[in-house]
UniProtKB/TrEMBL annotation:
Residues 7-140 form the Ketopantoate reductase N-terminal domain. InterPro entries: KPR_N, NAD(P)-bd_dom_sf. It comes from the Bacteria. This is Ketopantoate reductase.
Length: 320
């Protein structure tokens, strides 16, 4: 790889723009692969805000001067060291663009960030394991304003890292090392772990079920925190954690006893105070946007649970 890694980011949404900002800070030559409908917006460049405190707008960060591709075969006209997949799990499977892009990106390292348990296996159909690095996303990001009437954050893409958050990555040592060096050079908090998919599997399971419960409660914390709602959520979360632990080998015996209604009741108000935006609104907007991905993840848990003979009764209640 040369001194200035050449990076192609697929998807210039909330996550792609944040990684683009850090990779640019690391000195990377950036290209984005975007859908045709977003090309003009991409050509104007992006404005981002790294949030710290409520109602205190930070200095804007500008991201521009990158190459824009609107189809996978166009990648053949450039050489890339890294390809970052900044789209949802369901977008990975929409059409044959992954297969096409794999054909046109030579020996590039691919970095996947998707949360579904079967995403890595899907990508391994096109990318050899020696070139695939897996990561998880520790920050929140969104297109501001979340509601038309909001004046904070200013219009652009806002992002926030929880205190002490680190992005975990795993993969073949040489490729992983190059990805971590690049990210750290740009100031991104990145660490290696044995298996990023496994490390994220149980938090993802609890989050997915919590979000399904919140959606069933009309995206209102007040309704979500009612005893019957919490009862369904904590039981479904226990089912999901057992299934995921069985499937990934993640150590989880200590988790189900913790998953009690009281935990959700305590954590939600705490999280609402720590996050520097209206958490209820963010969760509604973000998880409506990636709703097809959440439903697909739930379906996978139920299918895996059934085939392993594990209970799925409460998970099924959240299937719409
Ligand atoms: N944002 C967060 O806070 C956050 C946090 C943790 C994890 N994640 C995960 O990160 C992933 C991306 O989330 P996001 O918030 O960045 O979503 P997003 O804002 O919707 O960005 C994804 C972008 O990629 C585009 N896209 C989809 N397929 C594409 C393709 N084949 N080629 C080029 N562009 C394509 C989408 O277009 P359309 O608009 O047409 O769909 C959209 O513009 C999801 O799996 C999400 O769960 C996000």
């Amino acid at each position: 790889m040369n001194d200035k890694p050449r990076v192609l980011l697929v998807g210039a949404g909330a996550v792609g723009q944040v990684f683009g900002t850090y990779l640019r800070a690391a000195g990377c030559e950036l290209s984005f692969l975007v859908k045709e409908k977003y090309a003009e917006e991409a050509r104007r460049g992006y404005t981002l805000y790294a949030l710290e405190k409520r109602q205190r707008a930070p200095e804007p960060l500008f991201l521009s001067g990158f190459d824009i591709l609107v189809s996978a075969p166009e990648a053949a006209r450039r050489r890339f060291d890294q390809v970052w997949l900044c789209v949802s799990s369901t977008a990975l499977r929409a059409g044959d663009w992954v297969e096409q892009l794999a054909r046109h990106t030579g020996e590039a390292t691919w970095v996947m960030l998707q949360p579904a348990l079967d995403d890595r296996d899907f990508l391994l159909r096109f990318i050899p394991p020696e070139r695939l690095v897996s990561g998880m996303i520790p920050f929140l990001s969104f297109h501001a304003p979340l509601r038309p009437e909001d004046t904070f954050p200013p219009s652009g893409t806002a992002f926030w890292f929880p205190p002490l958050a680190r992005g975990l990555f795993s993969g073949p040592p040489e490729r992983l090392g190059a990805v971590l060096r690049t990210l750290r050079a740009g100031g991104y908090p990145a660490s290696a772990t044995g298996d990023a998919t496994r490390a994220a599997a149980i938090p993802t399971a609890v989050l997915t079920v919590t979000v399904a419960g919140l959606e069933a409660a009309g995206w209102r914390f007040e309704r979500f925190l009612q005893p019957d709602s919490l009862e369904r959520v904590h039981r479904a979360a226990r089912e999901a954690v057992r299934i995921v632990a069985r499937h990934t080998g993640a150590r989880a015996s200590f988790v189900p006893p913790l998953l009690r209604p009281a935990l959700f009741k305590a954590l939600l108000p705490l999280a609402s105070r720590v996050v520097p935006i209206d958490l209820e609104t963010y969760l509604r907007v973000h998880f409506t946007k990636v709703g097809d991905q959440g439903r697909a993840i739930l379906r996978t848990y139920i299918a895996l649970g059934r085939s392993a003979g594990l209970p799925v009764r409460y998970l099924q209640e959240f299937q719409s």
